[in-house]
Amino acid sequence: MLEFDCAHGRIPGAFDVDAEGRFNLKGVFVREHGGPVRSDEALEERAALYAGRIRGERMTLDLSLNDGAGEPTGLIASYTLEKGRVPNLMKCL
Q1: pTM of the full predicted structure?
Q2: Could you please report the per-residue DSSP string of the chain?
Q3: Domain edges within the chain
Q4: In what order do the strands lie in the sheet with 7-10?
């Protein structure tokens, strides 16, 4: 499970990287909203591509959403993560 500001995502299966630490993984992305989620409310899951590279203690992560045919529609966000460092995450208000 991946947690973002006002969203979450999931990458099913193994987190495979190549010999240079690169990855290109299919998953899902869900936008959230402020306030509670009603019991009859279904948040839309969008097909997503999580790509990046791990070098030492640092990982870069690019998030792109896919259209209905599985083609990337464009970069949504880029992140740089560092092992052991706590992120500054703000959930929706």
Answers
A1: 0.85
A2: -EEETTEEEE--S-----TTSEEEEEEEEEE--SSPPPTT--PPEEEEEEEEEEETTEEEEEEEEE-TTS-EEEEEEEEEEETTPPP------
A3: 2-82
A4: 2-4, 7-10, 22-31, 45-55, 58-66, 72-82
Q: Which two three-digit tokens encode residue 76? A: 């949504």
Return the structure tokens found at 56: 């030492």
4, two tokens: 């973002």
> pLDDT tens digits, residue range 8-67?
999 998 889 999 999 999 999 999 888 777 888 888 899 999 999 999 999 999 999 987
Nearest Cα residue to 26 out of 64, 74, 68: 64
